[in-house]
Amino acid sequence: MSFAIGKYYPSSRINGIFFPFQSLLEKLFSTSEEQDEAERIALQLSVPSGDALHAVLARNHRLILVTRDNHFKKLTHIASYWKPERLL
Predict the structure, then answer these.
(1) Which residue has the higher pLDDT, 40 or 1?
(2) Residue 84, number of CB atoms within 10 A of its CB
(3) Which pLDDT score is estimated for 7?
(4) 65-66 and 81-82: which strand pairing?
(5) What is the pLDDT of residues 22-51, one digit of tens each?
(6) Who wins on pLDDT, 5 or 46?
(7) What is the dihedral of CA 75, 80, 84, 85, to 10 degrees?
(8) Among 22, 30, 28, which residue's Cα sits nearest to residue 1?
(9) Which of 40, 55, 85, 88 has the largest CB neighbor count within 10 A?
(10) What sign does the dihedral 20-76-7-40 (CA atoms) show?
(11) Which residues lie closer than 8 Å to 69 by C-beta, 6 or more apart?
(12) In 10 A of CB 57, how many CB atoms?
């Protein structure tokens, strides 16, 4: 399986969204093991593989996901998530 950030959005749009937060962000790269685990989780739980990969990465890097995506309700045993308004 291929995980490409530009699959649904052009890179220019993604870069534009994150530009104001550039000094606060660190780019993560997934390993083939993380991608394989995410694929298994996605199939088991019927969630998008990209969401499963984000949960695996968040767990492995001790991060909390910030999202309104309801798929993450099925992934709370892997990683915690907060809704954006919780940060305000």
Answers:
(1) 40
(2) 9
(3) 67
(4) parallel
(5) 898 888 999 999 999 999 999 999 999 999
(6) 46
(7) 110
(8) 30
(9) 55
(10) positive
(11) 51
(12) 20
